[in-house]
Design brief:
It is a single chain. With 100 residues, the chain is mainly β. It has a single domain (2-98), classed as Immunoglobulin-like, CATH 2.60.40. The protein contains one helix and seven strands. Strands 1-4-5-6-7-3-2 form a seven-stranded antiparallel sheet, with no helix packed on it. The radius of gyration is 15 Å and the shape is globular.
Length: 100
Amino acid sequence: MQTNNTKPTGQPAEKLPHNLILEERARLTVSGVTRIVRYDEDEVVLETAKGTLTIGGGSLQVSELSIQSGEVRISGRVEFMQYSEPVTHSAGGLLRRLAR
């Protein structure tokens, strides 16, 4: 599994247009990507302008990343796509919650 904490654009996430184009369940183009969280051949996790997007399947490859537009191209067998809300960390973390 590879992890990439690089943010492709310097633009605020809410200003990036977010679109998905899936072709023949084999090629996926995602715009509005603010960060590639991690990827391997079975799963790609992207932070987008509309939440965290998980793409699952087989033989997945991140084939192209455009830093200016926040566009990512993925090839392979796409079996599912799922959004989740971005994780927010509370101030103080675990120690603060234990001290209550």
